[in-house]
Design brief:
Elements (H helix, E strand, L loop, with lengths): L3 H17 L5 H7 L1 H17 L2 E5 L6 E7 L4 E7 L3 H9 L4 H13 L2 E11 L2 E10 L13 E7 L22 E2 L2 E2 L1 E2 L4 E6 L4
Antiparallel strand pairs: 1-2, 1-4, 2-3, 4-5, 5-6, 6-10, 7-8, 9-10
Helix pairs in contact: 3-5
Amino acid sequence: MLSRLTCHILILFTVLLGSSCASVNIPKFYNRNQPILDSIEQIYKQAYQKRHFSIEFTDRPFERVSLELVTDSLTYIYEFWVGEERMQDSLRKYGFDSSVINDLVTRMRSVNCTWINNLDYYAEEKKQSMIYISLWPRAINSPFVNKKYYILTYFSQPQYFDSNGNLMAGRRLRRIRRINKEVFKRINERVCYTLSDRFR
């Protein structure tokens, strides 16, 4: 008969093993959180057209936020506590709408979105842009789990996919398109996802 200590060790081992296999089904996560994720994309897209910037959370509790603010001549990178008055002053100083940025920060925190930025790319010799969103879901908040980021890309126009749902480089479907060396899968005609060791 197993000793009580052995039983406790086996239970602990089972819990640790289960947490190490924790994962998130990104299409389901997207469908469950689509209104808030799509609103983040839309608000960011509209704000980015006026002034270029990106937002990154630098800690796991999503309490420290880094802003990359692009002006006509320079790019400034600041880190703040969420809601810090110094952040509001800096946004106003460089001509950013602080209410929009604060709204984005709040929405991003609500879905564990760790980074958002606009990326340019070329398709069929034409410059295009997409919005790149990194997620760090709490479902994998365990010391025994390798840090993984779930990446969503919002394209400004419908994309091409092969029969397996892989994002393709063009309508001829000859080559899989890689973004930051990652293969992306279809969620819908404009939104794709991947799992990555890097958030950007």
